[in-house]
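Residues pack. Consider this:
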Amino acid sequence: MITKETILETNLKQKEFYNNKKKNFATNIWSKVRNGVLNQIKKNIGVQDQSYVLHKEWFGDLSTKKVLDLGCFSGNYWSMYLAENSKEYLGIDLSDIAIAKLSERIKHLPNAQAKAIDFLSDEFTVKDFDLIYAYGVLHHFENTSILIDKLNEKLAFSGEIISYDPLETSFPVKVLRTLYRPFQSDAAWEWPFTKKTFYLFQDSFNIIERRGLLGKSKWIALVNILPLSGEKKNEIGLKWHQQDWNDSKTLDSVLFSCMHVTMLMTKK
């Protein structure tokens, strides 16, 4: 049984991993694929930018909001914007090295602070957050029920969560991840969302809006090897991405064909 204590022990290893960034061969290869080929695809078809723009829309007026930037490392894409515009900002991460860098970046902001602490730890007593921004974070918790209970504990009445996480719900992605997992150096805290995970969040929160990314559009990786012009390839990729983006909002079948999901949720 995966308990809170088990996760806390795993997170100590996770902290050491991110402080030292010691990846094995397989994890280094996957990182290069993810940060190289996949990121280039996302850039070409507008996946990443559209997500960031949507997140900013979801933030709304931050001037009255107490914000938790969960698992922010040394600062994600929106960390500085959140720190500069929210009523109160707290960025937390397991890595003390990363948090030291973020602390330096926000030291001129009287409303903002950064702290190296485990979200599940009893030492983390701050709560009543109006917004929890969790970019690439929620899938690091093996026991989703424990995570959901803690999120609810930390949210203010009608508080919001904005998340972005990988999915393991399409057959080709599940096969690849299954083959890769035995060699993955960070496997202990990498738990891409399954259908069960998604439905647990759906049962526990009000999902105001959701979007899936890299569903049909993930196949642009194969289209790229065809003898087509770059313009034509991008045209196909953009079309497929918009279909994923629009249809995943309401259709579970499309959402579960995607590699990533981003959600705006509110406390019930």
Remarks:
- DSSP finds eleven helices and seven strands in the chain.
- The mean pLDDT is 93.
- The CA atoms of residues 134 and 163 lie 5 Å apart.
- The beta strands are 66-70, 88-93, 112-116, 129-135, 155-166, 205-213, 260-267.
